UniProtKB/TrEMBL annotation:
<feature type="domain" description="SHSP">
    <location>
        <begin position="30"/>
        <end position="142"/>
    </location>
</feature>
<dbReference type="Pfam" id="PF00011">
    <property type="entry name" value="HSP20"/>
</dbReference>
<dbReference type="InterPro" id="IPR008978">
    <property type="entry name" value="HSP20-like_chaperone"/>
</dbReference>
<dbReference type="InterPro" id="IPR002068">
    <property type="entry name" value="A-crystallin/Hsp20_dom"/>
</dbReference>
<keyword id="KW-0346">Stress response</keyword>
<dbReference type="InterPro" id="IPR037913">
    <property type="entry name" value="ACD_IbpA/B"/>
</dbReference>
<protein>
    <submittedName>
        <fullName>Hsp20 family protein</fullName>
    </submittedName>
</protein>
<comment type="similarity">
    <text>Belongs to the small heat shock protein (HSP20) family.</text>
</comment>
Length: 148
């Protein structure tokens, strides 16, 4: 019996880092209802990421983005519109309320968000301050005298 093991659930709710403890925790807490709406997490460079959420039928006023304590929350819900009564003969476009959360790594910032053609694009950028960057220490081969 061959068992296929996928790491995909580990990478769904994190952007910009590889901390396995946090990834395993989020995979264990993965709710079954988190598949709506579908979304992609894309890497466009060493420090550039994009989250693309399929938000068909939603307008900008129906969506809300919030970053708090390193967690990006995307929520949406249809607000009551112009009061026009609509009778659906068939309603196949899901417009139910949703809430997606993404844990962001240190120094990941939300740069922009836009809604186009039913897709919500959220651009992220890693901005590492100079004091947090790795520093190369030169080795000059000169032995320092022992402290007395």
């Amino acid at each position: 019996m061959t068992a296929a093991f996928s790491l995909a659930p580990l990478f769904r709710h994190s952007v910009g880092f590889d901390r396995f403890n946090d990834l395993f925790e989020s995979a264990l807490r993965n709710e079954s209802g988190s598949s709506y709406p579908p979304y992609n997490v894309e890497k466009h460079g060493d420090d550039q990421y994009r989250i693309v959420v399929a938000a068909a039928g939603f307008q900008e006023s129906d969506l809300e983005l919030q970053v708090e304590k390193g967690v990006l929350t995307v929520s949406g819900g249809k607000r009551e519109g112009n009061g026009e009564a609509v009778t659906y003969l068939h309603q196949g476009i899901a417009q139910r309320a949703f809430k997606l959360s993404f844990r962001l790594a240190d120094h990941i910032e939300v740069k922009a968000a836009g809604l186009s053609n039913g897709l919500l694009n959220i651009d992220l950028l890693r901005v590492v301050p100079e004091e947090a960057k790795a520093k190369r220490i030169p080795i000059n081969g000169v032995q320092q005298p022992a402290l007395q």
